[in-house]
């Protein structure tokens, strides 16, 4: 293919793109054309590192252009060659500058993208009191550099995939060779190769294509905005997944107890961290069962309640026109609406609306005799318990299950709550993510993993990595 044909084919592939720039340069009586999209290419770098070396060849004592182009070190920026017009056009669309030289059948491709991006900022959804404040941004190269900054070892491997027929979105799997279970990597590679779609724009969309159990509300991937959380997971033998344009990463495999952990646990004293983990576990259970227990007991099993407390509850509900189940559903749905409104309205007024709105509506509802004061207390405690769960998707899952248990508790009493709880626990025991049981180390019972999952032991005692993640090298530190 001649250079004129290559240039015309490139123009044909890029037609109707008014933002594509065709920059002609004549070097030693040879016509050269640069093709690039000005908005996504570093024009200053293009001029300094590529155009200027070519222009210097117009001086009388310069070497012939053909000989210079054969020298891979002529340009001060790496270049690749391509003779396919379609591939070259895709390169232009992804931030490359393409050089077509008259008389040559191959184009030179220079990767010099320049996209708008924000600076590394503090994590918004995983805030900590003690520990690093940096979080991922939408630029995957910056995100990878944040991980490289924390794990400076050649065994840290980064494997790239490309998803989307049109978006060509780069996706990276980050792991440590010799630690991560090869079966996890093989599963990830097989799943990525099966994804055939127009495009992906979020890391959560990628997980929806995985051939894993979808008939559950429990999250089977751990999302995080924090580089230190990804680095810590990689050192445990897990793998991180990062996608271009997404300010968060996925971690696999995952367990229920890993979703209850916070990165701050490793920056606090092991005593405080262990106490906080146990509190999280307790309130995670409370966030699911408390409203259903209250409704079922006050409706069907009132003999369980002490007499004085029963009289207090009865007097508070004396003028309430609704049964306890309807009362609880009204309050829970109102709380969900306030939570969603607080997240969607502008940030300066969001927290004020959600907090003051809950207080005002709760007091007004009690004063109007629509709901009872004990019900407001139960719903408030349940809402606080949900906020204690550090993983957002796990919190949503627990909120959905709360409504299921609430309806069963209001219709079948304690029997319905116990039966539903047994079904949920059995379902969690049957789940596994990439070969890891979802409830390990509780089911199956592995006491050696308790010291870093149920509670946090001192760092000097964590000599082995958790068995749940099947790390190839179990030893974390040398015994003394």
UniProtKB/TrEMBL annotation:
Pfam families named in the record: GerA
Annotated GO biological process: spore germination
InterPro entries referenced in this protein's UniProt entry, alphabetically: Spore_Ger (IPR004995), UPF0353/GerABKA_families (IPR050768)
Entry keywords, A to Z: Membrane, Transmembrane, Transmembrane helix
Transmembrane recorded as keyword: yes
TM spans (from-to): 278-300, 359-388, 400-425
Residue ranges with Basic and acidic residues bias: 466-480
One GO CC annotation: membrane
Chain segments carrying region Disordered: 458-480
Family: Belongs to the GerABKA family.
UniProt name for this protein: GerA spore germination protein
Lineage of origin: Bacteria, Bacillati, Bacillota, Bacilli, Bacillales
